[in-house]
Specification:
The chain has 4 helices and no strands. By secondary structure, it is mainly alpha-helical.
Amino acid sequence: MSLKLVVDELIAEHGTLTAEWREIEKIINEVKHEEPKTKEEKYNFLKPVTDLFGKSHLFATKFKVHEIKEERFVFTEMAERGKESLVHRLLDDHRRIDELLENMRRLLEDYRFEKISAKDLVEKILKTHQEITKIVSEHIKIEDQEFRKL
């Protein structure tokens, strides 16, 4: 597979991943910020939480596959062309995003096993989501610019 084909595929995936991340944001915005009390409130709270759990796991898996392609094909080429510091920055972004996605998964597990309240879950998930969004936005912008130069 040629480098150009890989780069084109990765840039296209950026759009797909960004759209999926926005869908996750919509689900987060559906989650209520109060502690559910009645059965109906619990269902209404749990519905978006379970959607969030599934979609965030799926996103994390797709993102990991995307990272592997970047690291194996494109980052190697960038390093050979003298862009080692940029490659280290992008690899650090991957590591931080992975950690934050894992943190998001743990928060959902903690809520599932009643280790944290619904209110704590929502507050922490929102904070984590905002951190990931900031990193991903900057990361994709850099990659889109740099990958096109290859």
